[in-house]
Automatic annotation (TrEMBL):
InterPro entries xrefs: 8ODP, NUDIX_hydrolase-like_dom_sf, NUDIX_hydrolase_CS, NUDIX_hydrolase_dom
Species whose genome carries this gene: Cafeteria roenbergensis
Annotated function: Oxidized purine nucleoside triphosphate hydrolase which is a prominent sanitizer of the oxidized nucleotide pool. Catalyzes the hydrolysis of 2-oxo-dATP (2-hydroxy-dATP) into 2-oxo-dAMP. Also has a significant hydrolase activity toward 2-oxo-ATP, 8-oxo-dGTP and 8-oxo-dATP. Through the hydrolysis of oxidized purine nucleoside triphosphates, prevents their incorporation into DNA and the subsequent transversions A:T to C:G and G:C to T:A. Also catalyzes the hydrolysis of methylated purine nucleoside triphosphate preventing their integration into DNA.
Subcellular location: Nucleus
Name this protein carries in UniProt: Oxidized purine nucleoside triphosphate hydrolase
Domain Nudix hydrolase, chain residue ranges per copy: 29-155
Length: 192
């Protein structure tokens, strides 16, 4: 398991670089997705994806925002569907754009965290449920971007970033800690 490093090579972005990343995505279709991390004290709830996109990787819980629901409602619904629990204090923490070489659509992932929930984490058809200590996160079995922004999430901060992938390897990216959630959400222009 990889250790959390405090200095990410991508944590060097100026607002100008973030704007450049936004420009790269402008005009391209965005797919709105949620990702919710349950962090309780010194442990994080992760699930291994059992099918579809990201199969075999550990991640937080999330998915597509459906018509008629807000992003937060989508994040809470996905957590309930995939892990069987209802978060009661979910809060926005970041926004990440992910581009995969050769694909037109850019993923627009809104990241939330929660520490309180109702129910018992329960494995679903899509995801397992497993608690990991914050110093034992399975970064080698997670998306490659996670090791860069998790330290910000875990210390209570907010962030915005843009990562370009070739299959499951990062080929370029920028990541910036922001002062608050609003700044993170506004990073790439119009927000839904
Ligand atoms: C590429 O880097 C990523 N890193 C992380 N940590 N998470 C990512 C990355 N790219 C996408 N994600 C997240 C965003 C979502 O939470 C899921 C993908 O959602 P999914 O395709 O499973 O959406 P569903 O609505 O559940 O899809 P189904 O139609 O299969 O139910 O991954």
């Amino acid at each position: 398991m990889a250790a959390v490093t405090s200095a990410s090579p991508f944590a060097r972005a100026s607002p100008k670089m973030i704007d450049a990343a936004a420009a790269a995505a402008s005009g391209r279709p965005l797919k709105l997705l949620t990702l919710l991390l349950v962090v309780q004290g010194d442990r994080v709830l992760l699930g291994m994806k059992k099918r579809g996109f990201g199969m075999g990787k550990y991640n937080g819980y999330g998915g597509k925002v459906e018509a008629g629901e807000t992003v937060l409602e989508g994040a809470l619904r996905e957590l309930h569907e995939e892990a069987g629990i209802k978060a009661t204090d979910a809060t926005p923490r970041g926004r990440m754009l992910f581009e995969f070489r050769g694909e037109e659509t850019v993923m627009d992932v809104r990241v939330f965290s929660a520490s309180a929930f109702e129910g018992e984490p329960t494995e679903s058809e899509e995801m397992t449920t497993e608690w990991f200590g914050v110093d034992k996160l399975p970064f080698d079995r997670m998306w490659a971007d996670d090791r860069h922004w998790f330290p910000i999430l875990l210390d209570g901060g907010f962030f915005r970033g843009y990562f370009e992938f070739e299959k499951d390897k990062i080929v370029d990216g920028v990541l910036e800690r922001t002062a608050d959630a609003d700044t993170a959400l506004k990073a790439f222009g119009a927000s839904k």
